């Protein structure tokens, strides 16, 4: 079985790396946070002291980092360290699963191609529950051969693999999705809050809306009202999950994209403003479904 270097073991990367181990891959793991490396080493991965160390001897690199600047520095290098394009063995397959701006994804992909590497931008959808269950959706950009090569690895961590188009296309499709997700989460939060304000039980209301015309992913899988679903971040003090800061990043990316293409995205713009205000109120590191607290009557 091939050896995978896994870089970035946060809320998403850690369960993804564990699924690769469960499927029999050898995993060489690195994160800036030592506890995260220790957590995956406890499951059988090899703990590495740098990204270059992790990628040494690997057949495949998978990265799961916060933003474009991290992906760029990892593959192209910066003033502090060499990039993986300078250090990995010939024929190493490179897969970036982070959600980043399409321009950086394209730049890194084309630099990799220039050096003869296959590179795939493969951002994911499905949240931490999908990462843990191994049911993520991968939205790939890159050339056909590179995406075909990536499929067996991605299948070990997910159940849907789409090829959106050439380099950077995975990122474009992903931010369209996340802009819609933000709007759905805000809409779900305000509808539930209005129901609660008028005496409805949020669980009963959720059950009704889930199978009615307002049904959506937030209601199905990620209810923002504490206590309605036991396993989601809302019922765990909004810890873990998908941070507000990351949603703010994605909504910034979608608005930049909309500006470039002169696309009209008023709902995305409003959602961005609401999540930015929520982050400014000290909620940046909490799960994004905590936007519910902007609508609910805390005294109720
Ligand atoms: P996170 O902040 O929990 O994890 C990111 C990890 O990367 C951290 O452990 C951090 O220490 C590590 N890191 C940062 N720079 C590094 C470097 N130079 N070398 C090694 N490690 C480094 O974030 P997350 O929730 O796991 O999200 C990761 C990516 O996945 C983001 O781009 C996010 O937008 C995307 N995403 C997240 C979710 C979700 O539900 N959390 C869903 C889909 C996509």
Automatic annotation (TrEMBL):
Domain 6-phosphogluconate dehydrogenase NADP-binding: 3-165
Top-rank taxon: Bacteria
Keywords, in A-Z order: Branched-chain amino acid catabolism, NAD, Oxidoreductase
Domain 3-hydroxyisobutyrate dehydrogenase-like NAD-binding: from-to ranges: 168-292
Active site: 174
Protein name: 3-hydroxyisobutyrate dehydrogenase
GO terms for biological process, alphabetical: L-valine catabolic process
Reaction(s) this enzyme catalyzes, per UniProt: 3-hydroxy-2-methylpropanoate + NAD(+) = 2-methyl-3-oxopropanoate + NADH + H(+)
